[in-house]
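Lab notebook, bench 4. Still working through the backlog of constructs that have no structural model yet. Next entry is a single chain of 498 residues. Request: give me the structure tokens for it.
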Amino acid sequence: MRAWKGIKELGPNEFKSFFMIGGFHGEPFRGPGAQIPAWWGGYCQHGTVLFPAWHRAYCYRVEEALRSIPGCSSVTLPFWDETSDPSREKGVPTALTDETFMLDGKQIPNPLRSFVLPATIVDAVEGDNRLYSKPEGYETVRYPLSGLVGTPEDRAKTAAHNAQFPTPEIRTALLNGNITNWLNTSFTVGGRKRGLVYQSFIDCLNTPNYTLFSNTTSSTNWNNNNPKALVVALESPHNSMHLAVGGFDVPGLGDSSPCPGANGDMGENDTAALDPIFFFHHCFIDYVFWIWQRRHGFTNSFTIDANDPGAKYDAQVNPPPFGADSNATMSLTTPLEPFFKEYGVPYTTADLINIESQLGYNYGPGSLDSYAGAPPQAMAAAAEPEQKTVHVGGIDRSKIRGSFLIATWAELDGKKQLIGLEPVLSRWQVLGCANCQTKLKVSADLRLPPTADPGSVAVEVHTHDGLLGHGPSPASAGLMAMAFAPAAPAQPFTVEIR
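Model written out:
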């Protein structure tokens, strides 16, 4: 607490200040990404093979800053064990949500609960029709609140929305309820429950190589070409927790969203890292990364497939971040800017594969420890060659404001059940590009439970602007059903049973 209080009180331009470090991820935007949508104005790596390594370097950078505060030279960055029983039963640890903390005999605002911006950040990206700007003095928010304050219209809507939840106790209770809903949502097959988010963390540990494990671009490409051998990338359940904290509730738990209009900072790439909870979440993601490495024997080395789309930038899908070469192929030696191991020498993935020997840290007990030594399961194709899968394709991310959620339903044992949640963590940017509207941007694949009726499958895309659309698919494998958005009939998506 002392260390976090210290880095948050440093000036916005100081090297080890929380504002400086939190801003590395997204806003304040810099370089060509500050105005041109074909570039990303932050440094963060999402949808690329550098995702786990870049965020490992990020957590390490934060820990170094925390240790720079007087009296805190031995402090370590804890992880929020998101798959633990206490998290699944109670939600967010109280250390991250309590309103105050007693430090040196004084009651102070809890340094881990939120962050008040010491300077204004402005979203001036061309094409933004709702500026994702934040003024000096803005305090980060989580579900059920909204943090959209970029325009007078947004500020009025946000004030009215947030007034519905007037006390910290109400807000924390709703946040914890949302987290437990996400972590416990499951469907039942033959009397056995299958938790969606929890199972995604388990499934990603079985992904056989680093390229597919590392990011959703690579796993999506693989799944599209190998429908009988689906894999899960670490980035997928990671996205789920961002959206759970940031502002999306689980579909189907009521007639409508209990908190329509929620839009917390963790739910968008633009400002996610300005909420302190980001680093306790990503410390857990790094823990899962290390468990995967131990499980597969990759603690000292792994490889990156240079021919995989996740190893290349794409102006439409994965815009290059600030400082990156847009034509480069990512590798183990690609600089992980803006993190430097010494003056002028940036970290690379090769510098931080082994956290013990290269970085000097390890993890205490966690809920996934048992998977570190277990033999990895074979690819799904070997075990379940006849199992059908659901493929959702053609969702144009550039036409959706901010993050969104793909929910898949099917009839199981005579009951409609939610069988898939694919979160898409995005930025608050809308490209007004007619040329890119016809290009496939986002797809999702999942295994259809053996007892599910293929003809009952229906898909919904939940956005901050409401439900995009849904469409039952035909029972015949290989056929495609077109699902149109009620409010935007020009943007269909497809549902295919394979």
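Notes after review: The chain is about 25% helix and 15% strand. The CA atoms of residues 458 and 472 lie 4 Å apart. Flag for follow-up if needed.
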